[in-house]
Amino acid sequence: MKLSLNLLLLLLLFIGVTAFSQSKSDSLLLVKTEWINNNLDYIRFDADTITYNIANTRHDLYFDLGKRTLTMKERFYYGGTGIKEEAIQFKIKNLDKNKLVIYPLDEKVDLDQEGLRKLTYEPFYTKKEFTFYNRQNAIEPIDFKKITFISSTCFGTCPSFSLEINRDGSFFYQGRIYAKKFTGNFKGKLSKQEMVTLHKLLNRSRISTINKKWNQNTKPVDNPRFNYMVELANGEIIEISTNDQHPILDKLSEYFINLPDITELTKTNKKHNFEKPKVNAYKIVGIEE
Predict the structure, then answer these.
(1) Cβ within 8 Å of residue 229, ≥6 positions away
(2) Cα–Cα distance between 166 and 146 in angstroms, integer?
(3) Do 179 and 161 contact (CB within 8 A), yes or no?
(4) SS3 category, 107
């Protein structure tokens, strides 16, 4: 009898440890992966926040993970009495290294009765469930001839600059406001490894699909304006203007912003003739180049 009891306890302990390990494994898989689908719905986890783009709406929320559940939360100060939270909980229906399926557990009518004031929950009810795929597998090859990236200032100290990268790796840089030691005109050439990194970022950016299917639905915000101009080898031009970009482009813009710090630049007195944007949809009023 005692032996059977010990076996039962060991079995229960094994089940508990296995469930905990699986839960931890699921959590790591979920938060270390960027998720996107063909409709450009997107989720990315950053520390304790989640960045999403659903139904062409980009937003950042806090999140909690439970047993096969994902809770997205908006936190805000309410009437000077402290921080209030509003949340939507999702069931994790399926999760593996290639696929994530979630659906909201709350009924929209119940949320209406709660009188939400801050959390924009409408995008979460555009579908009964959302299926996402690992961004690493969402490859969209970009065979470029020339890339021009222009960043404006913001209402803070965001650097204003223009950058051009050519197919052979040669590039030109012009730093303007808040560019610090990179103020002025520079030139350089990307190494083979830097070109490999750039191609990976471009191929996973879905920039061609975003150009055709995505529009910034949010109002202009206090972010720098980004202009992407990509001339493809076949002559096609991709051009995007945004100051609240689709989050799948974040790593690409981060690469361009940090490029002067990770490669060698040579200052020059010759001013490069950068491609001029034909699309300038999102300007920061009062702060222009």
Answers:
(1) 147, 148, 149, 150, 237, 238, 239, 275, 277
(2) 4
(3) yes
(4) coil
- Which residues have a Cβ under 8 Å from the Cβ of 285 and sit 6 or more positions away? none
Strands (E), the chain: 35-36, 42-46, 49-54, 57-66, 69-77, 83-95, 99-104, 130-134, 144-151, 161-166, 170-175, 184-189, 226-232, 237-242, 266-267
Write down the mean pLDDT value for the chain.
85
Q: What is the secondary structure of 241-254 as a DSSP string?
A: EESS--GGGHHHHH
Rg from Cα positions in the chain: 23
**pLDDT of amino acid 118:** 78
Contacts of 231 by beta carbon, 8 Å cutoff, 6+ apart:
144, 145, 146, 147, 237, 275
Average pLDDT over residues 197-225: 88
Q: What is the pTM of this model?
A: 0.83
Query: For position 25, what pLDDT does the model report?
Result: 67
pLDDT the model gives residue 18? 41
Find the farthest-apart pair of alpha carbons in the chain and give their distance in angstroms, rounded. Answer: 90
For the record, the structure tokens of 117 come out as 């004031």
Size (the chain), residues: 289
pLDDT digit string, tens, across residues 244-256? 999 999 999 999 9
d(CA 61, CA 52): 8
3-state secondary structure of 164: strand
Would you say residue 266 has pLDDT above 70? yes
Listed in sequence order, the residues at least 6 apart from 272 whose beta carbon sits closer than 8 Å to its beta carbon are 164, 172, 174, 185, 187
Q: Please report, for residues 14, 22, 78, 101, 123, the alpha-carbon distance to residue 68 in angstroms, rounded to integers and kept in the order given.
A: 20, 10, 31, 11, 21
